[in-house]
Amino acid sequence: MNYILTTENLTKIYGQKKAANNINIHIREGSIYGLIGRNGAGKTTVMRMISGLSKPTGGSYQMHGEHRFGVGVLIESPGIYPNMSAEENLRLKCIAMGCYKKEYVQQLLSIVGLSDTGKKHAGSFSLGMRQRLGIALALVGDPKMIVLDEPINGLDPQGIVEVRQTLEKLRQEKGITIMISSHILDELGKLADSYGIIHEGELLDEFSIGELSTRCGQHAVVNAPDTNRALEVLHNAGFEQIEVDPDGKIRIEGAIDRTCEINRMLIGSGVDVKEIYVKNISLEDYYLSVTGGYNNG
Q1: Which residues pair with 74 in a beta bridge?
Q2: Containing domain of residue 134, as a range?
Q3: pLDDT tens-place string over residues 89-131
Q4: Residue 160, helix vs strand vs coil
Q5: How many helical (H) and strand (E) elements, i.e. helices and strands, does the chain have?
Q6: What share of the chain is helix, strand, coil (3-state, %, to 5)?
Q7: Are 116 and 238 in a shared domain?
Q8: Same domain, yes or no, for 194 and 112?
Q9: Are the beta carbons of 27 and 177 closer than 8 angstroms?
Q10: Which residue among 54, 172, 223, 232 is least packed, with the fewest CB closer than 10 Å?
């Protein structure tokens, strides 16, 4: 598997607090990697270290192959000049990096959907437009990977869609690897194809979207007043992968196509069934099961 970035026991300590502790991340080339965690979990700390903005206390990170120094960064708020247009902001960044050409600036504006902003000052842009300008600034120099910290935080629905479409376009048309952090799991689930869950400075899990489906998938849920009797009937019928959730509902793995059969069986055995249905496990469900709590971010 071709990785563009890996970390080995990456650690950052502030005083007595381990903001990031022995983080081992593996980001595949051409992927969109979602770093999941509530506010204060350590997402920004990790991203600042791999972007070279903060020195690790311990461990290391490595960019692989020809991409060793090609990282664009948007961490926290975009660094834009509010009294300048989008084009002028990009021109300054390009001059500073020694790659200014008018057509190059226009190309970047087109990529992020800001070609029609003309001389409008960036200070009057919507939050979504400012975020897209920040992404354009991160693209100066043609990096093979960009690191984006909470780029959809605070955006309205339209702004979220615009940023998501921009990132999908970058990956599909430019082959750019994207690392994005967020605590808005519903949106991240529509975008990323691999994930890392970070909680209280620890990387708890790392998985692809395919692995998430395998780990979580779907299961049948039975809500019966007499839980013990229902469990007895199900066990006698050969169902082995059964758990009782904290709310008393029975979860049956590998039985999503047998709900009618299960319903008939329980009723035929004298067990009342209040409800039976198939539940899809979401990214948020899995995150909560791994962290053992609710996302406060």
Answers
A1: 148
A2: 3-208
A3: 999 999 998 888 999 999 999 999 999 999 999 999 998 899 9
A4: helix
A5: 10, 14
A6: 40, 30, 35
A7: no
A8: yes
A9: yes
A10: 172
